[in-house]
Amino acid sequence: MKHRTSIWAVALIAMLAMSVAAGVAACGSSSSSSGSSGSSSVKEIKIGTLYPVSGDLAKLGDQCISGVKMAVDEINAAGGIKSMGGAKLVLVEADSQGKPDVGISEITRLCQQDNVTAILGTYQSSVALPATQTAERFQTPMLITTAVADAITQKGYKYIFRICDLASWYARDQINFCKAMESMGGPAVKTVALLHEDTDFGQSTSAGQLKYAADAGIKVVANVAYAASSADLTTQVSKVKASNPDVVLTTTYLNDSILIAQEAKTLGMKQLFFDAAGGTVDPQFIKTLGDTAENWLTEIEFSTDANQTSIDLNTAYKALYGDNMTGNGMDGYQGVYVLAKALEDAATTDKAKLRDAMANVKLVAGVDRVVIPTKEITFTADGEITDAPLYVVQIQKGVFQTLFPLPAPGKLIVP
Amino acid sequence: MNLKMPYIRIVVIGALICLLPLVLSTFYMHIAVLVLIWAFLACAWNIIGGYAGQHSLGNGLYMGIGAYTVAYLVNRFNLTPWVGLVVAIILSAAAAAFIGWIVFRYALKGAYFALVTIALTEAAVYVVSNIPALGGAGGMQMEYRGNSLAYMQFAGQNGYFYMGVVLVVFILLLTQWYKRKRFFYQLIAVRENEDAAEALGVDTVKAKIKANVMSGVLCAVGGVFYAQYFLYVGPRSVFGEVVSVQILIYAIVGGLGTTWGPVVGAVLLVPLSEITRGQLGNSFPGSQLLLYGLVMVLTMMFMPFGIMGLADRLRQRWQHRSATPLVDSQGGEAS
Amino acid sequence: MNLNFSGAVLSQAVASGIMLGGLFALMSIGLTLIWGVMKIINFAQGEFLMVALYLAYFLVARGHIDPYITIIITVPFMFFFGIGIFRATISPILKDPVMNQIMLTLGVSLILQNLALMLFSANVQSVNTRYSTWNIHLGSVVISGTQLIALVGSVLCTLGVWYFLKTTDSGRAIRASAQNPTAATLMGIDVPRTYLLAFGLGSATLGLAGSLMIPFYYTSPTVGVFLGLIMFIVVVLGGMGNLLGCFVGGLVIGLAETVGAAVFPGSLARVFTFSIFIIFLLFRPQGVLSKRQT
Q: C190 to chain A, minimum CA–CA distance in Å?
């Protein structure tokens, strides 16, 4: 009899604990949102963000959120959303930890608990795919700023939009540049070798490279994949060397891009390496490698020196965060402005109306804040940005020189 | 003492839990479903890890087999997950029997089993990432087909919640029933003293393989449930070390080798971690996992038999004082 | 899938594999030593290496110390770091079931990993030293000088630990405690102290590994996850607790990684490594060098 009662007690305590925990959470989240609200604002508009701020990709998630915060502060300082009486944007941040299931949990929290009006997110296609499915189910507009898998906007979702480039666009522009290389004083590119890491980033980009290279009549002489955590990539690099391509197209994360650059030099490879905006865009790449990084080509969504707009933007960003702005930061920054414009047009926080406003949004360079190198920002019926050109840059004397699209300030150097 | 009481208790608590959707909002229902998923997986792990005392650190392998089987069959052949469930059970049973046979046929035990299972579950991550038919590194997404029991999909959380309650009640009843059977007595004998068990005529290898299969199959069922709830499977989200460790944390904290321990652990830790991530995740990245680490270390140092073990101790001490002399049994829930 | 590889690629793969194997062996000595002595698998060993790598990184990048001179700091630091962790967490539960110890060290690894994330952010950190470009050419095969030093370090470390265990009093005490703690206690050996020493030693070898790796490797909060996994595989392959086996196990896995990469397309190389491991489990579960114990 005594046994029984105590087990009952434990079970009851467990249930109580859970309801207490739930209660604490409810209080906690409500107090935190009221705590972060603006002091004298009439209204506030809650925007959820979902980026990996912990885990392996925390640094990249950080870059995204930095751009987002900068834009939110600018918009609020300039008087908020005017059509809604100067309502301020308030961020509700969530951490995906780079895990799909956590992404789903956090979207649920943002939509159901914090009642956000829209969501900005997320890095990594593996998180974005299930996260967008969840956001669609909760009928909450979600603007993807940095997940590149083509499939995300091909599912027929109504509430999902994307302003960053597709994985295939990186591959497309790489091949376009290869075709133009001869006219820029480079080699006539007849063959390429692919060297890529094996998560969905590398797998989807290399699939695009294969497709566009075939279209352009360029032969792929080697297609080598590796795990990004590898301690040594000499074998993979020597395999690429043995295939003797005109150019090596890589898709990397940071530590493996450093290994590849070092080992290519060790093996005495003379070819140009052309990275699909992977580890090479991290400032750490140049900082760590010094001379070894020279002449590497890469793609960037944001060039710090292409025009006056980007120079000013980068200066402001650097003053805030101490680093140069990256494509991730720029896409986050631009995303907030696109969302703000849609809110301005919708003049309501009703999600269905905001969704319609997003679908018809139009930002014109010179009139609205447009930092993507394009004349105007609109969405296709799929919710995909109509056009977002990429820059091709080369590392020359430790800085990125913009080479492409033509005309561009820099000149190609062939070792 | 009434032998039926533990069963009645499980069913009654399960029925009471079913009232939760009346009071909880969508987000808390989501957390409740997560609690049920992890509680079920932890109970499944408890059979090999708790009762048989074999330290499997790779039960993510079976969970992954379950989740991937159902996702593949749904996406590729448009088969209902109920068929996938049957296939998943067969595949996971085969895998668990094979791994059990590799490891247990020699007198290699303890940490060896832990290392082998952890290596195998990590190997599965790399294998799956390299199979394009299984979605490669990007994983597989299943389409949402609306409310449909045939496709094991529900519009809101409540459907999944009731399914989870049924599963957890089922595994608790199963554990409780087996506890009175020869099989679990054998497992406990193996755990406490393998040589002695062998000497008494227990086929220890067979018992351990059987426990591994039972645990693996149930983990695969948990994996199917997981896949159906999230409608997404990825190599790292169902296979691998991180998931495998997460499964067993709840059982350890709740109390190894007890019927209710894994459930209590999940009920306490899952909401706690969801809340810390929401509240602290941005200012202190990694705080959720740090918390798990601290809980694990502190539990092992000060409460090595988990919450249920501690409750047991306290109860025994109390009974001891109120006259009946009682032999101290280790950690086992003596209900 | 085409198996395109040439002789040059294969010979390069073998050379790289031996270098890598030496490195893997060096990382794993501590783990096998700790297991051999007190039958504890330290699941935080990968994170210990992460700590050593961070220490070496900061000494080189911020302190501008030559990476090979940092050894005189990293090795003693890791020795006392290991002793500190052992004292605080492991020694109180030394008599508890193996499972509890595994769980405890797993908890320690989670704590270290996420503390590093909070303190140092998730940035991948590496240094460019003057040794980075130092290479040895043997025909078409190129060997990186820093990796060669790591291999030499690995051999010396294995021999050093072996010599220490064989000839010194403390070493004999450790072996006695490993074989039979009760008898060792009766012989007047302070078993808890020898455990402490062995754990410190196992941790100190990682200090050496950290200093030798930092010229050509990187560090990040999660670097220990993959390296820790490699350690487990190497130690199981070598026969748990077997020092020489650990070295051979390291070579097997190093060669499997690079030769696999040369022969197989895509990242199936990693699968190849695990397959080798499983094959060994099937036919020689007691390790490459150990005698069968049934």
A: 40
